Structure formats: structure tokens, C-alpha cells
Amino acid sequence: MIPTLPLHGGTDSGPWVVHDFSTNANPLGPPPALWRAVQQADRQRYPDPHYRALREQLAAAHAVPPEQILPAAGGAEAIRRLTLAALLQGLREVWVPQPGFGDYAAAAEALGLSVHCYTVWQELLHGRPALIWLCQPCNPSGTRLDSAALARIAAAATATAAGPSIVVIDLAYEPLRLDGEAVALPPSCWQLHCPNKALGLTGVRAAYLVAPAPDDTWARLLTLAASWVLSAEGQALLMHWHDAATLDWLAESRAQLRVWSAQQRALLDGLGWRQRGSCTPFWLAQPPPQSIEGLRAHGIKLRDAESFGLPGWMRIATLTPPAQQALLKALTTLSTQTAITQGFSK
Ligand SMILES: Cc1ncc(COP(=O)(O)O)c(C=O)c1O
Questions:
Q1: Are 169 and 191 in contact (CB under 8 A)?
Q2: Helices and strands in the chain: count of H runs, count of E runs
Q3: What CATH number is associated with residue 238?
């Protein structure tokens, strides 16, 4: 039997895509200075196996001791490693957001853990020890919990009679949050930072975890990591993630994305799409029936949300005005073709 692997937006094995609305990567990336550093990364030597300088730098940005920073070869790798650590710690339940990023459930299922989906955060106050995934803001919905909800979840997770839960806040899209204030992150929760999306460098596999404390879970995560888990390019990316130049560039790119998102939403409104609210440059949208059949042949890709449990819905990310115009043109052509075909069959 061939196992089912998680489905993702972005590059696939199909025909070349000119305008990829299916990826959540920032279309404005990468920032020039950071990109130069990645290109100049020293590939002729191993990185420091302990990543000391990198951990010190990230630790200073997060105001934690350097040992609490754990580099990872991307968020996907960190999710697998954390799930394995949870299993070794004796946890048997994993709680994942619905709809949510498919890798949380895939990692749990691969290890025989039981997966529970939650649609509202109050379901997480069940009082049983578990690995709990929170995604802030959530992929694919672009929604997020407030500080009070996070505090309640964290408090409930530490108060379980049968041992504590591991709560992980996946902040992959926090740097691309287009509105609202940053929420307070409970100190007892793990944080997962995956900057490659905000930087438009998803091909560079680099992320890091911030551990709440140097506890048993932390020790497992450390010892489960492959040696040199982060490549030289990944190390360079993370080294420059908190640079002033990178942060300024990010702020500018959020301002631009706000404008483009509003334009794209207006365009889709005009075509009769239903669209959900979101604080990110991507959101869930439902096209009129049959209106997108054949879109790929026009070099345009959307992320079908069926695998998120939302048949008929798409996740669509903000792209540049020329890409939006190409989408409009393709959708108009498809609708004209459908009208002609329906006319013939009458
Ligand atoms: C919410 C979320 N977390 C983590 C990841 C993993 O990203 P990466 O492995 O590229 O760091 C993704 C990728 O799409 C994601 O959407």
C-alpha cells in the first residue's frame, strides 16, 4: 500500500506555474541583504555543530538563554521531531487545528499517536496530557486566538493531573500578519519560528524552536536532532532574520501586501467568490461552481482546500497586480468558454 503524504501548496510535479496563488511565501522576497548572505554561505565546511553564534543571536532577540534555541531543518522537520519527543515522553494524543497545516496530523499518524481535531480552542481544555498544536495565525484560515485564549490553554495544559501537555505555538505566519496586535505568548509554551515564508525563501530549509525551559522535552529534542541539522544556507538565513534591514524590509512588504490583498479581494468579489476574513496575505475563498476548472492550463495555481476538510474552497494567497490581472483574464476566458459550451448544448 502506498501511504498518503501531506498535500502542500507551491511547487509540485505538474506543469510549470507562472502565477502561483497556492503558496503562502511572500511574493516580494527575498530581502536583498539577507539573500546576499545566504548566497555567500560557506558551503565548503560544516557549520558549527552546536550553532553557538546563531543560538546566541536568536536568544538575544527572544530574550531567552541560548540553550533554549533549537535550530531545525525547517518547520516540517521540527514538527516531526517534536512529535517523536512527545511520543518518547509518553504522550499518546495529539490535538491539531481543523482546518490546519496537515503535517501536524501526518507526523502524529506516522508514529501511531491518536489525532484529535479541534475547531474551537475550548475543546483543548480537556484535562488530558497531549501534544497540542496552535497555529498563530492559522494556515489555511489566517485566523488567530487572542492572548486570553492562549493563557487559558497554557494554564489548562500545565494543570493536567496525569502529567503536563506540550503546547506548541507555530508562528510561521506571524511575520506576515497584516493587522491586529501581537498576542502575549505564554512562557510555558514552545514556539516554532519558520521565517522562510515571510522572506520568500521557502527553498531554504531553516527554522528554530524556542523551548520554554531546559526540561526533559528540550533534552529529547536536542538528542534527536541529526548532526548539522541546519545547512550553511539555513544558518545564514537565520543569522540575518532579526537584522534591522530585514525587519524594515518586512514592515515595508507587509504595507505593500495590505494594498495588494485588498485589490485581490475586490477582484474576486467582482467575480462572485465567497471570501472569509483573515489577518494574513492568504485566505479561504469559494469560487462559483466550475469557474476555475482548467485554470492550471493558463499557468495559474490555487491551493484546493479539500484536504483541509473544505471541499469547494480554495486557499488563495496575495500576488502582484500583474498576476492578479492574469487571474482575472484566465477566469474571464474560462467563463466565456463555459457560456459558449452551455449555449451549444442547449
Ligand atoms: C503553519 C506552517 N508551519 C510550518 C510549515 C513548515 O514550513 P517549513 O518546513 O518550510 O519551515 C508550514 C509550511 O507550509 C506551515 O504552513
A1: yes
A2: 9, 13
A3: 3.40.640.10
Same domain, 303 and 172: no
For the stretch 305-329, pLDDT in tens is: 999 999 999 999 999 999 999 999 9
Question: Which CATH number covers residue 281?
Answer: 3.90.1150.10
pLDDT of 247 > 70? The answer is yes
Please indicate, yes or no, whether residues 68 and 214 belong to a single structural domain of this protein. Answer: yes
Do residue 270 and residue 333 come from a single domain? yes
State the virtual CA torsion across 73, 79, 81, 84 in degrees, nearest 10: -160
pLDDT in tens, 101-142: 999 999 999 999 999 999 999 999 999 999 999 999 999 999
Ligand 1 geometric centre to CA of 172 (Å): 6
Q: Which atom of ligand 1 is nearest the CA belonging to 207?
A: 11
Our count of domains for the chain comes to 2
pTM confidence score: 0.96
- What are the φ/ψ torsions at residue 208 (nearest 5 degrees)? -155, 155
Nearest CA to ligand 1 atom 4: 75
Nearest CA to ligand 1 atom 3: 172
Q: Give the domain extent around 322.
A: 19-27+255-345
